[in-house]
Write a structure and sequence with these properties.
By secondary structure, the chain is of the alpha/beta class. Helix content is 42%, strand content 15%. Helix 1 crosses helix 8 and helix 4 packs parallel to helix 5.
Length: 253
């Protein structure tokens, strides 16, 4: 018999970074709709307040994930309020420069600090916070740029950070599987968000996306809901160390 509660997150605590807009805000809303108590983290407190005003299960936490103290405080806030930490969505990210020759080594390091170092630290904090065998799930939001080049779009630091996130996903899955911590990555293709606003507002770039995507269009944020909830919930209880690509067929060309 099929368990119709596989995707339920009732009674669980989730943390979503980069939740003030775009995909992160959508992720926080989707998790809350499935019953989770969600701690939505980002730098823009006003945006978080607007998000939380629409759902009492969403709790805003002003947080700069590039700051170690802020990351510590985020996890402490969730644990103090609920006594548990079940789901981590490492979504916060920055794009960096498109052209490698325009990017300094410090710029490159700054992108990795947000896109790769912060997810590692938050994942480690989660692993340390819970009891072994409690079915915790980490979802690292990577990108198709971790898998293929999208030159002239993409950027060296961004692609490197997302490829690193995929490698980190596999390694942490291997190290923490015995403790019941599942670690998977979600790799979106071209989705409409704040980060891709210029891409979709430019007719030439938009046509480029449509031409090279098998479904001939960019993705809508809601089309990631199912994949996110699958990885976050017991529906994927025997899935770890994997990369779930949702890209309209871009990488299958």
């Amino acid at each position: 018999m099929i368990d119709h509660h596989l995707f339920s997150l009732h009674g669980r605590t989730a943390v979503v970074t980069g939740a003030s807009s775009g995909l992160g805000a959508r992720f926080a809303t989707a998790l809350a709709a499935s019953g989770a108590t969600v701690f939505a983290a980002a730098r823009r407190a006003d945006r978080l307040a607007e998000l939380a005003a629409g759902d009492p299960r969403i709790h805003p936490v002003a947080c700069d994930v590039s700051c170690e103290e802020d990351r510590d405080r985020l996890v402490e806030t969730a644990m103090a309020a609920t006594g548990r930490f079940d789901v981590l969505i490492n979504n916060a990210g920055v794009a960096g420069e498109l052209r490698a020759e325009d990017e300094s080594s410090q710029d490159f390091a700054d992108v990795l600090a947000v896109n790769l170092v912060a997810p590692f630290h938050l994942a480690r904090l989660m692993a340390e916070a819970g009891e072994p065998g409690t079915g915790r799930s980490i979802v690292n939001v990577a990108s198709i740029l971790a898998l293929v080049s999208a030159a002239p779009l993409g950027g060296a630091s961004y692609a490197a950070s997302k490829a690193g996130l995929v490698g980190l996903t596999r390694e942490l899955a291997g190290q923490w599987g015995h403790a019941g911590v599942r670690v998977n990555a979600l790799a979106p293709g071209w989705f409409r968000s704040e980060m891709t606003e210029e891409l979709f507002s430019d007719a030439r770039s938009s046509r480029w996306v449509e031409k090279n995507t098998m479904l001939r269009r960019g993705g809508d944020p809601g089309e990631l809901d199912g994949a996110l909830l699958f990885l976050a919930s017991d529906a994927s209880s025997y899935c770890t160390g994997q990369v779930l690509v949702v890209d309209g067929g871009w990488t299958a060309r």
